[in-house]
UniProtKB/TrEMBL annotation:
Keywords: Cell cycle, Cell division, Cell shape, Cell wall biogenesis/degradation, Cytoplasm, FAD, Flavoprotein, NADP, Oxidoreductase, Peptidoglycan synthesis
Protein name per the record: UDP-N-acetylenolpyruvoylglucosamine reductase
Catalytic site positions: R155, S206, E300
GO terms, biological process: cell division; cell wall organization; peptidoglycan biosynthetic process; regulation of cell shape
Annotated EC: 1.3.1.98
Catalysed reactions, as listed in the record: UDP-N-acetyl-alpha-D-muramate + NADP(+) = UDP-N-acetyl-3-O-(1-carboxyvinyl)-alpha-D-glucosamine + NADPH + H(+)
Amino acid sequence: MRFEKGKSLKSLTTLGIGGKAADFVEVKNEREMEKLFRENKRRWRVIGSGSNIVAPDSGFHGLVIKIGIKAFGVKGKTVYAGAGSNLLDFIKKINRHGFRGMEKMAGIPGTVAGAIYGNAGAYGQEIKDNIFRVRIFDGEKIKWISKNKCKFGYRSSIFKKNKNWVIVGAEFSFAKGNPRELSKISKDIIKLREKKYKPGLLCPGSFFKNIIIKDLKSIVRKKLLSKIDNSKIMYGKAPAGYLLEEVGAKGMSSGNVRIAQHHGNLIYNAGGGKARDIRKLSRILKDRVSRKFGVRLEEEVQYL
C-alpha cells in the first residue's frame, strides 16, 4: 500500500470539488484491508469512484481509503464482484455471460460497492434484486452477510447506518437471458443517459432521490397528487427532476455550481465550483419543493 499526503479530493470525485485529504491510500485486496484497519487508528472515510460524493472545501482531516478490489468470478449462475469493480464494466461482463437483471442499470456511475451502499437502480431495476449475499469488513473481521440483513430500501441499505462496515464484494444470482439482447438494451440505455449527462460533465448523476408515493402519509400524498401531472409518476415514484422543474430549478446557479437547463435534478460543477454552493442550492431547492408540494426532497449524494 502506498500512502499519499495532501491528496486532492477534486481528483477523487466526479464533481471535481473539495479540498485535500490529509492522507490517502488505495487497498487492492482483502489482506491489505485487514492490515490497514488493524494498524490505522485515525479518523477515516471509504470511497469508491467518488461518483456520489460531495467533498468539503476544507478537505478531510483524516485518512481517505479507496477500495480497489476488482475480483470477478462466475460459478454456474452465481457471480462474484469485488467492491471496487466499475459498475458498467461489471454489467457488460454479465451481459456477455447472458445474465439478466442489471442491463437497464448500465451507465449509472460508480463502483459495485457504491451501488450496493445506495441500492442504486434505474428503469425498474435495483442492484438488490439479484444480490445473494454481501462480503464486508465489520471492523474486526471479514465475513458474509445475507441479503435480508442488508435491509435494502429505496436508495438505502444498512451500510448507510453502519458507517464502520466496509463492503468488500458481493455474490449475485441471475436468471439467464440472451447476451446480444442484453447488450443492446444496455447500449440503448447508455445513449439515453448521455443525452442527460454529457460525457465529461462534472456531476454526481441524480442529486435528489425521487419521492415514493406509497410511503407518504395520506394527507401529504393527497396534496402532492392534487398538484402534479399523474402521467409523470413512474414506477410508483414522483420524479424529483419533475418537481424541481415545476419550482423553477432549471438554470439556477450559485457561484460556479449550476443546474442544467434541460434537467432540474442535474447539479454540476461548471469549473471551480464549491461544496458550499452545492449546499446552498440544495437548501433553496428543498424549501421550494416543500412549499409547493408539501414533500421534503432528500439528497441521493453523500457529504464526505
